[in-house]
Amino acid sequence: MAKKDAIFDYSSHFDVTPYLTEVNASITNNASNWQTDRVDNMWYGAPTADAPTPPSGWDVGTFKALHLYDIDFETNYKELDATPIHKLIRDIKEAFNLPNKLGTHADGDTAAWGNEYTCHTDESNFVHFIAKECAAFPMVINPMAFNDPKQSGATKKCELIIGIQGGENNSLDAHEMSFKVRPTMTNQTTFNTHNKTLADASTAPASYTNQTLSGSEFTQNGSVMLINCTNQYQPATVSRTVDYTVLHIAWYGHTYAQIKALMDAAIA
């Protein structure tokens, strides 16, 4: 599988910088609405099992998620949009002709935001946080929605990730990200076996290793990137000096190829 089948950078087709000040302010205003996200559950060898007490370096609070349906609406923010984060997602979906855009009512009026949209059965929209104290973020594959009651147990097929802050960890601009992908490493069983061995040995998060590389590994930097969740990938961070925050539009029923085809057609 080629790099373009695992990750693709669309940063040059959508400028996120005009949104960042208001988006960051909205995130700050919703600090009490974050949910604990047990991302560490993916590295114990049985991602569907109840997560054990997390070891130091993956403490509760290391990973958090802020779902759009938990964000307090800002009265009369801007036309149809409830918050700056809602507007960013609306504009990205319009720019790339992505699924589950806001539609129109029967009378022809454009639909405003509502919980039924942000909780679409094929999709989740959320801000994700990794604390600078995170000891490690190994490769993941087929990540499951552990913390989202609307998508509980569902497996992501692909996601569009938008950088908000934390790029300084990779000597990039704050809103830029760096990801590694392994396009040919798609076997969930061998992934689970590798991590179970580490977990059974009580390996500390900082000492966690990835599977031995099979095939190619690529690194991609950017601020708007589509990632194929059916192969292994991870944030390519050397060290963390600041917290890391990104926005996810994740699909559970659309494949990477389907979403990429829509996006490529929109910018053609």
Mind sketching the topology for me?
Blueprint (H helix, E strand, L loop, with lengths): L6 E3 L10 H10 L5 E2 L26 E5 L16 H13 L18 H4 L4 E8 L27 E8 L11 E6 L5 H13 L17 E5 L1 E5 L3 E4 L8 E8 L4 H12 L1
Antiparallel strand pairs: 1-8, 2-3, 3-4, 4-10, 5-8, 5-10, 6-7, 6-9
Q: What tags apply to this protein structure?
A:
268 residues; alpha+beta; Jelly Rolls; 7-stranded antiparallel beta sheet; 3-stranded antiparallel beta sheet; 19% helix; globular
Can you walk through the features of this model?
The chain is of the alpha+beta class. The chain is built from 5 helices and 10 strands. The chain has a single domain (3-48, 66-99, 114-267), classed as Sandwich (Jelly Rolls).
Briefly say what this structure is.
It contains 5 helices and 10 strands. The protein has helices at about 20-30, 85-95, 115-120, 190-200, 255-265; strands spanning about 5-10, 35, 65, 125-130, 160-165, 175-180, 220, 225-230, 230-235, 245-250. It is globular.
